[in-house]
Design goal:
heterotrimer; A: about 400 residues; alpha/beta; Rossmann fold; 2 domains; five-stranded parallel sheet; about 40% helix; B: about 290 residues; mainly alpha; 11 helices; 2 strands; about 5% strand; transport (chain B); transmembrane transporter activity (chain B); Amino acid/amide ABC transporter membrane protein 1, HAAT family (chain B)
Chain lengths: ~400, ~290, ~325
Amino acid sequence: MNKTFRAALAGLVTSTAMLSAACAEDIKVGLLLPYSGVYAALGQDIDDAFALGLATFGADSGATFEIVREDDEVKPPVGLAKTKKLILQDEVDVMVGVVSSGVLGAIRDTVDGAGVPLIVANAGNDEATGEACSPFITRISFSNQQVNRPMGKWMVDQGVKKVFTIAPDYAAGRQMIDAFTTGFTAAGGEVVGQEWPAFQKTQDFGPFLANAKASGADAVYVFFAGGEAISFVKQYDSFGMKAELPLYGSGFLTSALYVEAQGPAAEGVITALHYVPTLDNPENAAFVAAFKEKTGRIPSEYAVHGYDSARALVEAVKAGATDRETLAAALPKVSFTGPRGELRIDPATNNIVQPIHVYETVAGADGLTQKVLATLPAEADPVNGCAMPAAVN
Amino acid sequence: MTTDLGFWVLQTLNALQLSMLLFLLSVGLTVIFGLMHFVNLAHGSLYAFGAYMAASLAGVLGYWGGFFLAPLAVAALGAVLYFTLIRSQRRAGPMAQVLITFGLIFVAVDATRLIWGDLPIGIAVPAVFEGQLALLGVEYPIYRLFIIALGLAVLAALTLVLTRTQVGAMIRAGVDNDQMAACLGINVERMFFLVFVVGCALAGLAGAVAAPVLSVTPDMGLQILIPTLIVIVIGGLGSLKGAVAGSLIFGFVQTFGAVLMPTFNSVLIYALLAAVLVIRPEGLLPAKG
Amino acid sequence: MFTHTPLRLTALSLLAIGSLAYAFVAGFFGLEILAEIAILAILVIALDLVAGFGGMVSLCHGALLGVGAYAFTVAANAAGLSAFPAMVLAVALSAGLAFVIGAICARSIGIYFIMATLAFGQMAYSFVFQSPLFGGDDGLSGAPRPDLSAIGIDLTDSRAFAIYAIAMVALTYLVAAATLRSGLGRSLIGLHHNEKRLRALGLTVWRAKATAFAISGALAGLAGCLAAQHTQYISPGLLSWTVSGEALVVVILGGLGTLVGPIVGAVLFVVLKHEISALTPYWHAIVGMILIAVVMSRANGVFGFVEARMAARKPKPVLQKADADA
């Protein structure tokens, strides 16, 4: 980053700092989410829950929050342009959002260089809180490895020794499966085969299923999300494989958002995720009821990211943060008990530390529901090359 | 694994299933092109519309209600498109057609989002076709066998119509030379309309049968467009035989490429298309010449 | 034959003055949009060169742009080249790739040409998407901007970068116009009208087509370098066929085969996109409807429409044609 640009930004920061001193209770939030494109439904869930979170917790912070929304269209260049707009034109105090890891990768340097705190409300790529970590980027959602690693040991403990893995061939797919494989083999399991169907180009998983069936594995472990998750689960069931070869996976596979479309095919699938709407705790009960009342939908894991992002922001403001600099310093220090359980931020990486819930999709009174089988203890991710500057922490 | 007979049977069935689905889509597109010289990029959107209609109707009338009514709904939409956009652009050249139908894709994607929302939806396989059938030593989903059978039935019916009936003879004459056909007293306009609407209905049918296997999403029309175009270009535009050949080649290359050469799979089909175009610039079995 | 009619010269001057004036007064986001317009303008000039004048409607220009962007970024980051040598390398690579594609597709015409270029574009996309060398789906960051501090220009400043991008549009336009006026350009236009005749006259058709395609590819590669420098981050989405499709839309919206029209189209498209997307997330539908309306109107895009209206107002300058480019 060049000196002039830095100087200009520094000037901007001081001028906004002086402005915010005048009216300390105004926090301008830039919400960067996909409102169109393949992740539009996710963006809407996060948006609704973020607004709900601000309405629920914001009142007793004494601050007023103004939200500026921008659509990143799931396109990295668009996300970057909108980020620059939010930072330089709207002069927001804090940014919240980012569903796609590609968009996060694109805006990372800009956010870091401008010194604007960013609360990541979804994107799970490991690098964001690894080698590309930043004191200004706090992740309140999850990391790809976090969700999958503990499942390896748990499955071995359940007596599953040989596994075949399938995931789409792109960065997130690789990270999810690699983290699982690491956990699984460390606990004594064996991965007997792997398939990597082309991402977003594979509609028929039949060819890959045949290989899984012939591999001699005890179970299949997969990661898919969105439309691919629906197709995969249905096709897995249609080949009659669920009975002889149980299906396990990363919890996005049978997300509450998609399980209705999967229908009975999803019954009995066991997956692990950091949130399911059926978690039994008072915070979650309140959240589910409020979200249902507001939107008519059951909250997904994406919704909880939005809700907790709002909570984290409010906690930071309560701790005395008023502008970019103080928010950036306060955000990594927040900790609270939310719908997911006890949350804190790992100071070494600014990634969230949270329990992981293993759940089975079962038939309930009105449609499919999630039965929590186990809650695996919270575990901080390895530092993975993250060198956090000491000055800010 | 590859020495096991079951593997080859299973993957051949998978390939056939994909081929037949693509055949249902591409045959309408290719005959419309052969007859009217009209490039309809929005054909994939008609397929998506068929899938959404089938999913919605299945909720009310059951699977078969969607199966029979969705193609009709898509045909009706096709008729509307024909009279508003297609007919006046028939002589406007391929550029105008490509762009108008490209614009239609944009409109169609957002229209489905507005009507059905952003979340993917799914429908169940009809009860009669649930489960698997033992076939040559493998267990294969009955619904997929139904797709293969349906594709073959449509192929047989179309072959019969095109080769054995007067309408078929008129269409073949129109593909060869539409002006000459008009001179012979064939009502070319009416024939165009008929072929266009039937092509749309087949795209709708493809959407309806694909809906229980895949997830129904706003961008499914865009996703299927490129494979469909590859099929008709490899096969040769305008011919039924070309659509069959193109569908089979695509289905088999895609399926066996995925399991035997996973690293090259996504490049494989494009390389094949390029190779075909270099050796035979008009595709393998074009309608003319 | 490509000529600079008074109308085209007027439009060019207006575009140049307007964009430069705007570059000096615009706020931050205006400058971002200006750079975006400039990059799109370079791509559509490149596309109009082959599609509008040579009849080679390409759906791989997005991929050529992407190859330029990736080559630039990799050359600058991994190979450690400074920005200008990296740009030269990237442009040369895009040109080379375009030459090969042009040579292979030279025999195909019409829809077959479109499909063949689509196939090559998708091959490049799949290759970049899958290769871990290029960061796959996550893309690559850290593309540098050229260092012009020696002459007192700081390209990390948005204003300077926007002006630099406009200068590159001007350069692109000059290259395209010079190409069209050269022997090659005349052959290209001739090929579009009657390929058989030119073949009979002894022209090596494939070589003319491939060379024209290579020049167009070089310009697309330049657009790619600028795109990489602008966002300083690249992802496989740059190579997607929808980028090519969008470029084609812009060419048509502006006016096919006018070279000036596509620039007008780029301005309209980017501004419309930003204005409408601020109003509704369903802006694609509105852009689609505008596109349909423009094509249905049978005008050759916005600029083509103006040209046709101006031409209708005065008698045809039949005799002036020969000395128009003198």
